[in-house]
């Protein structure tokens, strides 16, 4: 009878973490930035149907990098949690922190389970407040830990380099056009330091806009409005246009 091959718990966890990180690194990066009127989500995504960014609840948005089918399951679970909690208690009881805790428990349980592979995903849950001081951004890596972020955050394949670039250049009170320009510049930088051009049709952009009169603050930006914002950012202007695609 052969002796089972022994792997220490520490080595097993390290191997699972490396497996998840490699899966996430194969996906395109995305960034989430605070600006004067809310929070903007920007990512390179050639698909018009498979979204990286989605609305979870009134003031809460969701962003994910990694395997689409895995983070889509998490997104659907988050929507169900938010709807149930808002219906059972009050809409104000649905918070990004509560949702982040739910996601952390799910990811942590899957990561530590020997019966299934870890999820190859990294999430961002953001909530826009009445003022910039009330904004909340939480990053959730594959192992279920929660990182409270401020100002800007990047996840995905080239996240460390992009985060460093954003940390040096992001500032409070930026307009939407300025924040979008900075996000695109960060995403355009390759690992070797060179820059490439990302056309507007390959960008997915959404915002949590605190100035919207509706309860639901999430809206997508695409088409002519996105082109105008990119042009305004390049020119250093402050043109924000009107919403063409709201959810």
TrEMBL record:
Activity regulation: The formation of the proteasomal ATPase ARC-20S proteasome complex, likely via the docking of the C-termini of ARC into the intersubunit pockets in the alpha-rings, may trigger opening of the gate for substrate entry. Interconversion between the open-gate and close-gate conformations leads to a dynamic regulation of the 20S proteasome proteolysis activity.
GO terms of molecular function: hydrolase activity
Domain of life: Bacteria
Associated pathway: Protein degradation; proteasomal Pup-dependent pathway
InterPro entries to which the protein is assigned, alphabetical: Ntn_hydrolases_N, Proteasome_alpha, Proteasome_alpha-type, Proteasome_asu_bac, Proteasome_sua/b
Gene3D superfamilies: Glutamine Phosphoribosylpyrophosphate, subunit 1, domain 1
Alphabetic keyword roster: Cytoplasm, Hydrolase, Proteasome
Pfam families linked: Proteasome (PF00227)
Keyword field contains Ligase: no
A GO-annotated cellular component: proteasome complex
Localisation: Cytoplasm
Signal peptide span: none
Main location: cytoplasm
Keyword Hydrolase among record annotations: yes
HAMAP family tied to this protein: Proteasome_A_B
Physiological role: Component of the proteasome core, a large protease complex with broad specificity involved in protein degradation.
Assembly information from the UniProt record: The 20S proteasome core is composed of 14 alpha and 14 beta subunits that assemble into four stacked heptameric rings, resulting in a barrel-shaped structure. The two inner rings, each composed of seven catalytic beta subunits, are sandwiched by two outer rings, each composed of seven alpha subunits. The catalytic chamber with the active sites is on the inside of the barrel. Has a gated structure, the ends of the cylinder being occluded by the N-termini of the alpha-subunits. Is capped by the proteasome-associated ATPase, ARC.
Family, as annotated: Belongs to the peptidase T1A family.
UniProt-recorded name of the protein: Proteasome subunit alpha
Name of the gene: prcA
